Amino acid sequence: MKNLKIAIQKSGRLNEKSVQLLKNCGLNFENYKSSLITTVGNFPLEILFLRDDDIPGYVAQGIADLGIVGENVIDETQAQVEYVQRLGFGKCNLKLAIPKDSDIQDLKDLNGKAIATSYPVILQQFLDEYKIKAEIREISGSVEISPGLGLADAICDIVSTGGTLKSNGLKPFADVRSSEAILVGNKNLLGNPILTELLQRIQSVLLAKEVKYVVLNVEKINLPKITELLRGVKSPTVVPLAEEGWVAVHTVISEEDFWEKINRLKTAGAQGIVVMPVEKVIM
Ligand code: ATP
Ligand code: MG
């Protein structure tokens, strides 16, 4: 069967996590910064390293079968691609921001104003939705400095911590959209067996991130309290310890309520709790 091609960002904020995800799926490949394409040694896949802006278009046209790219870029390019899997990294927010001393207070105050952005398509959709007539000034980078230069009254840009905004005398004003990295695919790819196999591996890696493997010791008389707390987990493993009257319990706890669970297990008599990362979960 023909190899599939997956496009990932060559360098930038999504590169490292995209490479790591594929490696965690057990794929062997060299990650030469200089090469634009690399072949996976132990899986029918080639990896293309591209500018993120080009990824949705390449996938829509079928030059690449799959891609890893931010939702913001998918929406901005308006490429026709299928969402295959949300990946949980590269989270950020596209926001409107205004100078700290701006007289803009309400969205409607943006009428007649100039807004600088690298995301003209997404911004226009947002303005249309709120029936705002503002001028969009498209800038490809360093959008934050445009109000200070007198180029714009507001900006629309990606914000994660807000530090860049602050150091340019700006403050966040309104949320336009949130974004995370997505595995996208060409629409003709659905049902492809190589994709099915790759997706199973990706999902097992993503699931593993959500859980911890926990081993704890407990006196047998306290075991019912412990298993009660671990309800929902399919039958925790209980093994006898060399010391009479004690057992070890092996289980998996979700990352979400991890500390709460651990504290309740301790109160219920758990001792010597050992926590380990999980590499893969196969359902
Ligand atoms: P390229 O050279 O590939 O075009 P770029 O400069 O356009 O790269 P990056 O800044 O590397 O893009 O960001 C890539 C993606 O990472 C963004 O489109 C966005 O989805 C996501 N991202 C996550 N956090 C942030 C952040 N704090 N700032 C910018 N982008 C972020
Ligand atoms: Mg880009």
UniProtKB/TrEMBL annotation:
Subcellular location: Cytoplasm
First-level EC class: transferase
InterPro entries: ATP-PRT_HisG_long, ATP_PRibTrfase_cat, ATP_PRibTrfase_CS, ATP_PRibTrfase_HisG, HisG_C, N-reg_PII-like_a/b, N-reg_PII/ATP_PRibTrfase_C
Signal peptide coordinates: none
Location, primary (coarse class): cytoplasm
Coiled-coil segments on the chain, per record: none
Reactions catalysed according to its record: 1-(5-phospho-beta-D-ribosyl)-ATP + diphosphate = 5-phospho-alpha-D-ribose 1-diphosphate + ATP
Activity regulation, short description: Feedback inhibited by histidine.
GO cellular component: cytoplasm
Pfam families per UniProt: HisG (PF01634), HisG_C (PF08029)
Keyword Iron: no
Protein name (Swiss-Prot/TrEMBL): ATP phosphoribosyltransferase
GO biological process: L-histidine biosynthetic process
Task performed by this protein: Catalyzes the condensation of ATP and 5-phosphoribose 1-diphosphate to form N'-(5'-phosphoribosyl)-ATP (PR-ATP). Has a crucial role in the pathway because the rate of histidine biosynthesis seems to be controlled primarily by regulation of HisG enzymatic activity.
Family: Belongs to the ATP phosphoribosyltransferase family. Long subfamily.
Annotated ranges, domain Histidine biosynthesis HisG C-terminal: 208-280
EC number(s) from the headed UniProt entry: 2.4.2.17
Pathways involved: Amino-acid biosynthesis; L-histidine biosynthesis; L-histidine from 5-phospho-alpha-D-ribose 1-diphosphate: step 1/9
NCBIfam families associated with the record: hisG, HisG_C-term
Superkingdom of this protein's organism: Bacteria
Species the sequence originates in: Rhinopithecimicrobium faecis
Domain ATP phosphoribosyltransferase catalytic: 51-203
CC cofactor: Mg(2+)
Molecular functions per Gene Ontology: ATP binding; ATP phosphoribosyltransferase activity; magnesium ion binding
UniProt keyword annotations, A-Z: Amino-acid biosynthesis, ATP-binding, Cytoplasm, Glycosyltransferase, Histidine biosynthesis, Magnesium, Metal-binding, Nucleotide-binding, Transferase
